[in-house]
Amino acid sequence: MPEFRSRRRFLSQIGCAAIFPFAAIAGKPAANGGEIIALNSAIAQSLLALGITRFGMPGVATYANTIIEPALPSSVFDIGSSTEPNLELLAASRPSMILYSPGSGPEPKRLREIAPIVAVPYYQPGMDHLDIAKNMLHSIAHITGTQTAEARYLEHLEWIFEQARKRTTLFQGRPLLGIDMAWARIFAVWGKGSPFDGVLRELGLSNAITDRDKAIGWKYMSFQQLLAMDDAWGINIGPLSKRTLNSPIWPMLPFVRNNRLISVPPSNQYIAGLPTIERLARTLGEALEAQS
Protein backbone atom coordinates (compact mmCIF):
# COMPACT_ATOMS: atom_id res chain seq x y z
CA MET A 1 0.00 0.00 0.00
CA PRO A 2 1.44 3.37 -0.98
CA GLU A 3 2.37 5.66 1.86
CA PHE A 4 0.63 9.01 1.51
CA ARG A 5 2.90 11.09 3.71
CA SER A 6 0.75 14.17 3.69
CA ARG A 7 -2.75 15.22 2.74
CA ARG A 8 -1.28 17.71 0.27
CA ARG A 9 0.58 14.97 -1.55
CA PHE A 10 -2.54 12.79 -1.52
CA LEU A 11 -4.74 15.51 -2.99
CA SER A 12 -2.19 16.18 -5.70
CA GLN A 13 -2.25 12.50 -6.63
CA ILE A 14 -6.03 12.31 -7.01
CA GLY A 15 -6.16 15.62 -8.86
CA CYS A 16 -7.51 18.50 -6.83
CA ALA A 17 -9.12 20.37 -9.73
CA ALA A 18 -12.89 20.61 -9.91
CA ILE A 19 -14.57 18.18 -12.28
CA PHE A 20 -16.63 20.91 -13.93
CA PRO A 21 -14.52 22.99 -16.35
CA PHE A 22 -16.37 26.27 -15.84
CA ALA A 23 -14.37 29.47 -15.60
CA ALA A 24 -15.03 31.06 -12.23
CA ILE A 25 -13.81 33.71 -9.85
CA ALA A 26 -12.64 32.08 -6.64
CA GLY A 27 -15.25 32.29 -3.91
CA LYS A 28 -18.11 33.33 -6.25
CA PRO A 29 -20.43 31.28 -8.46
CA ALA A 30 -19.31 30.88 -12.05
CA ALA A 31 -20.93 33.36 -14.41
CA ASN A 32 -22.52 30.58 -16.45
CA GLY A 33 -23.47 28.43 -13.45
CA GLY A 34 -23.29 24.67 -13.54
CA GLU A 35 -21.77 24.03 -10.13
CA ILE A 36 -22.72 21.42 -7.58
CA ILE A 37 -24.37 22.56 -4.35
CA ALA A 38 -23.60 20.59 -1.18
CA LEU A 39 -26.25 21.24 1.46
CA ASN A 40 -24.29 19.96 4.45
CA SER A 41 -20.68 19.72 5.50
CA ALA A 42 -20.52 15.90 5.31
CA ILE A 43 -21.33 16.15 1.61
CA ALA A 44 -18.79 18.97 1.26
CA GLN A 45 -16.10 16.84 2.92
CA SER A 46 -16.88 14.00 0.53
CA LEU A 47 -16.54 16.28 -2.49
CA LEU A 48 -13.16 17.49 -1.26
CA ALA A 49 -12.01 13.91 -0.62
CA LEU A 50 -12.81 13.20 -4.27
CA GLY A 51 -10.78 16.17 -5.46
CA ILE A 52 -13.80 18.34 -6.27
CA THR A 53 -13.00 21.84 -5.07
CA ARG A 54 -15.50 23.97 -6.98
CA PHE A 55 -18.97 23.93 -5.41
CA GLY A 56 -21.35 25.94 -3.26
CA MET A 57 -22.48 25.21 0.29
CA PRO A 58 -24.14 26.97 3.24
CA GLY A 59 -22.21 27.92 6.35
CA VAL A 60 -18.70 28.35 4.98
CA ALA A 61 -17.54 30.22 8.09
CA THR A 62 -19.14 27.64 10.39
CA TYR A 63 -17.37 24.85 8.51
CA ALA A 64 -14.00 26.55 9.01
CA ASN A 65 -14.58 26.83 12.76
CA THR A 66 -16.06 23.39 13.44
CA ILE A 67 -14.95 20.92 10.75
CA ILE A 68 -11.40 22.28 10.29
CA GLU A 69 -10.19 19.48 8.00
CA PRO A 70 -10.17 19.37 5.08
CA ALA A 71 -9.96 23.14 4.77
CA LEU A 72 -12.30 24.73 2.26
CA PRO A 73 -10.50 26.21 -0.76
CA SER A 74 -11.40 29.73 -1.83
CA SER A 75 -13.25 28.27 -4.83
CA VAL A 76 -16.08 27.13 -2.52
CA PHE A 77 -18.79 29.79 -2.46
CA ASP A 78 -21.30 30.49 0.31
CA ILE A 79 -25.07 30.26 -0.08
CA GLY A 80 -26.13 31.43 3.38
CA SER A 81 -26.17 30.02 6.88
CA SER A 82 -25.83 26.33 7.64
CA THR A 83 -29.19 26.32 9.43
CA GLU A 84 -31.07 28.20 6.71
CA PRO A 85 -29.52 28.27 3.22
CA ASN A 86 -30.42 31.30 1.11
CA LEU A 87 -32.59 29.89 -1.67
CA GLU A 88 -32.26 33.09 -3.71
CA LEU A 89 -28.45 32.80 -3.67
CA LEU A 90 -28.78 29.12 -4.46
CA ALA A 91 -31.02 29.81 -7.46
CA ALA A 92 -28.76 32.64 -8.67
CA SER A 93 -25.81 30.25 -8.84
CA ARG A 94 -27.76 28.16 -11.40
CA PRO A 95 -26.39 24.84 -10.11
CA SER A 96 -26.18 21.69 -12.18
CA MET A 97 -27.39 19.63 -9.21
CA ILE A 98 -28.10 19.90 -5.50
CA LEU A 99 -26.85 17.20 -3.15
CA TYR A 100 -28.86 17.03 0.07
CA SER A 101 -29.52 14.65 2.94
CA PRO A 102 -33.17 13.75 3.64
CA GLY A 103 -34.38 15.00 7.00
CA SER A 104 -32.38 18.21 7.04
CA GLY A 105 -32.32 21.47 5.12
CA PRO A 106 -34.98 22.98 2.83
CA GLU A 107 -37.90 20.93 1.55
CA PRO A 108 -36.96 18.84 -1.52
CA LYS A 109 -39.94 20.31 -3.40
CA ARG A 110 -38.46 23.81 -3.12
CA LEU A 111 -35.00 22.59 -4.14
CA ARG A 112 -36.39 20.74 -7.17
CA GLU A 113 -37.71 24.03 -8.52
CA ILE A 114 -34.10 25.29 -8.70
CA ALA A 115 -32.15 22.33 -10.05
CA PRO A 116 -32.11 18.52 -10.15
CA ILE A 117 -31.71 17.14 -6.64
CA VAL A 118 -29.94 14.00 -5.49
CA ALA A 119 -30.51 12.52 -2.04
CA VAL A 120 -27.37 11.45 -0.19
CA PRO A 121 -28.57 9.92 3.12
CA TYR A 122 -26.80 10.90 6.32
CA TYR A 123 -29.09 10.25 9.30
CA GLN A 124 -29.81 6.51 9.20
CA PRO A 125 -30.87 5.14 12.60
CA GLY A 126 -29.39 1.77 13.48
CA MET A 127 -26.57 1.97 10.93
CA ASP A 128 -22.92 2.40 11.86
CA HIS A 129 -21.77 5.87 10.96
CA LEU A 130 -18.52 4.75 9.35
CA ASP A 131 -20.59 2.75 6.86
CA ILE A 132 -22.87 5.75 6.30
CA ALA A 133 -19.87 7.95 5.51
CA LYS A 134 -18.42 5.34 3.13
CA ASN A 135 -21.78 5.00 1.39
CA MET A 136 -21.99 8.78 1.06
CA LEU A 137 -18.55 8.94 -0.57
CA HIS A 138 -19.44 6.05 -2.88
CA SER A 139 -22.73 7.64 -3.95
CA ILE A 140 -21.13 11.01 -4.68
CA ALA A 141 -18.26 9.36 -6.58
CA HIS A 142 -20.81 7.54 -8.75
CA ILE A 143 -22.82 10.72 -9.34
CA THR A 144 -19.74 12.76 -10.29
CA GLY A 145 -17.79 10.07 -12.15
CA THR A 146 -14.87 10.14 -9.71
CA GLN A 147 -14.67 6.44 -8.83
CA THR A 148 -10.90 6.37 -9.32
CA ALA A 149 -10.47 9.17 -6.81
CA GLU A 150 -12.78 7.28 -4.43
CA ALA A 151 -10.60 4.17 -4.60
CA ARG A 152 -7.47 6.23 -3.95
CA TYR A 153 -9.04 8.02 -1.00
CA LEU A 154 -10.21 4.75 0.59
CA GLU A 155 -6.69 3.38 0.15
CA HIS A 156 -5.35 6.49 1.87
CA LEU A 157 -7.89 6.14 4.69
CA GLU A 158 -6.91 2.52 5.28
CA TRP A 159 -3.28 3.62 5.52
CA ILE A 160 -4.30 6.18 8.17
CA PHE A 161 -6.07 3.42 10.12
CA GLU A 162 -3.07 1.12 9.77
CA GLN A 163 -0.68 3.73 11.15
CA ALA A 164 -3.02 4.51 14.04
CA ARG A 165 -3.32 0.79 14.89
CA LYS A 166 0.44 0.60 15.28
CA ARG A 167 0.40 3.57 17.66
CA THR A 168 -2.38 2.27 19.91
CA THR A 169 -1.55 -1.39 20.59
CA LEU A 170 -0.93 -0.71 24.30
CA PHE A 171 -4.54 0.49 24.66
CA GLN A 172 -6.14 -2.67 23.29
CA GLY A 173 -8.54 -4.05 25.87
CA ARG A 174 -8.83 -0.76 27.76
CA PRO A 175 -12.33 0.79 27.56
CA LEU A 176 -12.25 4.26 26.02
CA LEU A 177 -14.97 6.81 26.77
CA GLY A 178 -15.49 9.46 24.08
CA ILE A 179 -16.65 12.72 25.66
CA ASP A 180 -17.83 15.55 23.45
CA MET A 181 -19.75 18.02 25.62
CA ALA A 182 -20.25 18.59 29.30
CA TRP A 183 -22.77 20.58 31.26
CA ALA A 184 -23.26 20.86 35.01
CA ARG A 185 -24.14 17.20 35.62
CA ILE A 186 -24.82 15.87 32.11
CA PHE A 187 -22.30 14.67 29.55
CA ALA A 188 -22.62 13.77 25.86
CA VAL A 189 -20.68 10.62 25.07
CA TRP A 190 -20.16 8.58 21.92
CA GLY A 191 -21.72 5.11 21.88
CA LYS A 192 -22.27 2.28 19.44
CA GLY A 193 -22.55 3.28 15.79
CA SER A 194 -20.97 6.73 16.26
CA PRO A 195 -17.99 8.01 14.25
CA PHE A 196 -15.87 7.59 17.40
CA ASP A 197 -17.04 3.98 17.74
CA GLY A 198 -16.21 3.29 14.10
CA VAL A 199 -12.67 4.59 14.57
CA LEU A 200 -12.20 2.44 17.68
CA ARG A 201 -13.34 -0.66 15.81
CA GLU A 202 -10.94 0.04 12.96
CA LEU A 203 -8.08 0.44 15.45
CA GLY A 204 -8.97 -2.68 17.41
CA LEU A 205 -9.92 -0.66 20.51
CA SER A 206 -12.88 -0.94 22.91
CA ASN A 207 -15.65 1.58 23.43
CA ALA A 208 -16.71 1.97 27.07
CA ILE A 209 -20.26 2.72 25.80
CA THR A 210 -21.78 -0.36 24.17
CA ASP A 211 -25.29 0.94 23.47
CA ARG A 212 -26.64 3.82 21.42
CA ASP A 213 -29.32 6.48 21.72
CA LYS A 214 -29.38 9.16 19.05
CA ALA A 215 -29.23 8.50 15.29
CA ILE A 216 -25.49 9.09 15.00
CA GLY A 217 -24.60 7.19 18.14
CA TRP A 218 -24.24 9.80 20.87
CA LYS A 219 -26.11 9.73 24.16
CA TYR A 220 -26.42 11.64 27.40
CA MET A 221 -24.92 10.28 30.60
CA SER A 222 -25.33 11.65 34.08
CA PHE A 223 -22.59 12.39 36.56
CA GLN A 224 -23.78 9.43 38.63
CA GLN A 225 -23.49 7.06 35.65
CA LEU A 226 -19.96 8.20 34.90
CA LEU A 227 -18.94 7.72 38.52
CA ALA A 228 -19.51 4.00 38.06
CA MET A 229 -17.06 3.75 35.14
CA ASP A 230 -13.93 3.08 37.16
CA ASP A 231 -11.90 1.42 34.39
CA ALA A 232 -12.58 3.79 31.50
CA TRP A 233 -10.08 6.15 29.95
CA GLY A 234 -11.69 9.47 29.07
CA ILE A 235 -11.10 10.70 25.51
CA ASN A 236 -12.07 14.35 25.27
CA ILE A 237 -12.67 15.52 21.70
CA GLY A 238 -11.86 19.22 21.59
CA PRO A 239 -11.41 21.76 24.40
CA LEU A 240 -13.49 21.59 27.57
CA SER A 241 -15.21 24.72 28.77
CA LYS A 242 -13.92 26.62 31.79
CA ARG A 243 -17.27 25.98 33.42
CA THR A 244 -16.70 22.23 33.17
CA LEU A 245 -13.11 22.38 34.37
CA ASN A 246 -14.08 24.58 37.31
CA SER A 247 -17.03 22.42 38.29
CA PRO A 248 -16.63 20.76 41.71
CA ILE A 249 -17.81 17.44 40.26
CA TRP A 250 -15.20 17.30 37.49
CA PRO A 251 -12.26 16.15 39.70
CA MET A 252 -14.51 13.45 41.15
CA LEU A 253 -14.90 11.58 37.86
CA PRO A 254 -12.81 8.38 37.87
CA PHE A 255 -10.90 9.14 34.66
CA VAL A 256 -9.99 12.61 35.96
CA ARG A 257 -9.17 11.49 39.48
CA ASN A 258 -6.96 8.64 38.20
CA ASN A 259 -5.21 10.76 35.56
CA ARG A 260 -6.75 8.82 32.67
CA LEU A 261 -8.06 11.75 30.63
CA ILE A 262 -6.65 12.22 27.12
CA SER A 263 -7.54 15.17 24.89
CA VAL A 264 -7.52 15.14 21.10
CA PRO A 265 -8.00 18.13 18.77
CA PRO A 266 -11.61 19.02 17.92
CA SER A 267 -13.45 17.32 15.09
CA ASN A 268 -17.20 17.67 14.58
CA GLN A 269 -18.61 14.17 15.01
CA TYR A 270 -22.22 15.30 14.56
CA ILE A 271 -21.87 15.86 10.81
CA ALA A 272 -18.90 13.67 9.97
CA GLY A 273 -17.82 12.70 6.49
CA LEU A 274 -14.88 10.35 5.99
CA PRO A 275 -12.29 13.17 6.27
CA THR A 276 -13.52 13.95 9.80
CA ILE A 277 -13.24 10.27 10.68
CA GLU A 278 -9.74 10.27 9.17
CA ARG A 279 -8.77 13.27 11.34
CA LEU A 280 -10.09 11.57 14.48
CA ALA A 281 -8.21 8.33 13.73
CA ARG A 282 -4.97 10.20 13.13
CA THR A 283 -5.18 12.50 16.15
CA LEU A 284 -6.42 9.75 18.47
CA GLY A 285 -3.55 7.51 17.40
CA GLU A 286 -1.05 10.28 18.10
CA ALA A 287 -2.59 11.10 21.49
CA LEU A 288 -2.69 7.49 22.69
CA GLU A 289 0.87 6.89 21.52
CA ALA A 290 2.03 9.93 23.51
CA GLN A 291 0.32 8.49 26.59
CA SER A 292 1.85 5.01 26.22
How would you describe this protein?
This protein is of the alpha/beta class and 292 residues long. The chain has two domains: 7-120, Rossmann fold, CATH 3.40.50.1980; 168-291, Nitrogenase molybdenum iron protein domain (Rossmann fold), CATH 3.40.50.1980. The protein is 38% helix and 15% strand. It contains twelve helices and eleven strands. The protein has helices at 7-14, 41-49, 60-66, 87-92, 108-112, 129-144, 147-167, 195-203, 223-227, 242-245, 254-257, 274-291, and strands at 36-38, 55-57, 77-78, 97-100, 117-119, 175-182, 186-190, 206-207, 218-222, 233-237, 261-264. The strands form two sheets. Strands 6, 7, 8, 9, 10 and 11 form a six-stranded mixed beta sheet that branches. Strands 3-2-1-4-5 form a five-stranded parallel beta sheet. Helix 2 (41-49) packs across helix 6. The longest helix has 21 residues, at 147-167. It is globular and about 55 Å long. One of its GO terms (biological process) is iron coordination entity transport. It comes from Pusillimonas noertemannii. Its main location: other. It is found in: Cell envelope. This is Iron complex transport system substrate-binding protein.
